[in-house]
Amino acid sequence: NKDIYILGIETSCDETATAIVKNGREIVSNVVSSQIKSHERFGGVVPEIASRHHVEQITIVLEETIQKSGLTWDDIDGIAVTEGPGLVGALLVGVSAAKALAFAKNKPLIGVHHIAGHIYANRLEEEFSFPLLALIVSGGHTELVLMKEHGQYELIGETRDDAAGEAFDKVARMLNLPYPGGPHIDKLAKVGEDTLEFPRAWLEEGSYDFSFSGLKSAVINKIHNAKQRGENLKKEDIAASFQNSVVEVLTEKTYRAALEFEVKQVIVAGGVAANQGLRTALMEKFAPTQIPLSIPPLSLCTDNAAMIAAAGMINYLKGKRSSLDLNANPSLPL
Ligand code: KG4
Ligand code: ZN
C-alpha cells in the first residue's frame, strides 16, 4: 500500500496556491500567495490584475511547494487543478500550468470543482460521515450541498442573488471599511448591538435557497434615512444587526436541511466560515443535536490548494481523469 501524493493547484480568484497532500488527508506542503494588497485599493478583485499576478507567481509557488515537501516529481501521483468556477483568466493560469506539468512529467491530470475543494478542506482535519451536509459560504458562493458518498454532490439550495461574502463586502464598503470587508464587519459586530431591524429572507416555505440583495438594500436605506434625519447610526450596530440577519438565515436553513435529510455530519466551508458570529450560532444550534459540526481552521476556510488536492484524491481513486484539452470553465456546475 503505497502512499499517494496529489499536487493541487488553485488560481480561481486572487490567491495563487499550490500544495501537496498525502493520501487525501495529510498536508505535506501548502503555499498560498495572496494578492489582496493589489486589489485592496480598487475595493474588489480586478480580473486582469489577478491573471497577471497568477502568471508571475505560479512557478515560484510551485517550486516552493515541491522544495518544502522534500519530495521529487517522481513521488507525485497526480496533478489536481481547479477548472471552475471562478474568473476565467485566473483559472486559465492554473489549468495551463497543470496541463503543462501533467504532460511534461507524465502524470494524470485531474480537474476539480472549486466548491468540492472547499468541502474537502474539512477532510484534512476529520474523516467524513455520510450523508453529509455542507454549507459553503464565500465571496462567490452560498450553497447547501448534500453528499451521500465521496465525490457525489447534490445541490439543495443556493443564493438567488448575492453570495453571503459578497453581501458582507458590499455592506463593508457602505461603511467605508477596507476590502475584503467580511473580517472588518465581523470585528465591529463583536462590539456592536443588534438594535436595527433588518429583514430575513426565508423565501418560500421549505426552500433552502438564499437571497441577500434585499438585506443589502435595507442596509443602504437605513443608513440613508438616518442621514436625512441628521442622525448618525453607529457602524458597530449596523455591522451587528446586518451580521445577525445573515447568520440567522444561514444557521436556520442549515439546521432544517440537516434534520430533513437526517445527515450524520454538517460541515462549513468558504471564507465566510471564518465569521465568529456564524461559527458561534452554528455551534449553539447544533450542540443539542447528535449531529457533529465541523468548521475548518481559518487557514483552510479561505482559498488554498490543499483542499483542491484533497478533493482531487477522490477523483484519482475513482479513476476520473481529465484529458490534456481540459479547459477553464467559469460557470462549471457542481
Ligand atoms: O473563500 P474565499 O476566500 O474566496 C472565495 O472563493 O470567494 O472567501 C472570501 C470571502 C470574502 O467575501 C470575505 O469578505 C469573506 O469571505 N470573509 C468573511 C470573513 N472572513 C472572510 N466574511 C465574514 N466574516 C469573516 N470573518
Ligand atoms: Zn473559494
From TrEMBL:
Its cofactor is Fe(2+). It catalyses: L-threonylcarbamoyladenylate + adenosine(37) in tRNA = N(6)-L-threonylcarbamoyladenosine(37) in tRNA + AMP + H(+). Residues 26-309 form the Gcp-like domain. Its EC number is 2.3.1.234. Required for the formation of a threonylcarbamoyl group on adenosine at position 37 (t(6)A37) in tRNAs that read codons beginning with adenine. Is involved in the transfer of the threonylcarbamoyl moiety of threonylcarbamoyl-AMP (TC-AMP) to the N6 group of A37, together with TsaE and TsaB. TsaD likely plays a direct catalytic role in this reaction. It is found in: Cytoplasm. Belongs to the KAE1 / TsaD family. This is tRNA N6-adenosine threonylcarbamoyltransferase. Keywords: Acyltransferase, Cytoplasm, Iron, Metal-binding, Transferase, tRNA processing. One of its GO terms (biological process) is tRNA threonylcarbamoyladenosine modification. Pfam families: TsaD (PF00814). Fe cation binds at residues 114, 118, 303. Substrate binds at residues 136-140, 169, 182, 186, 275.
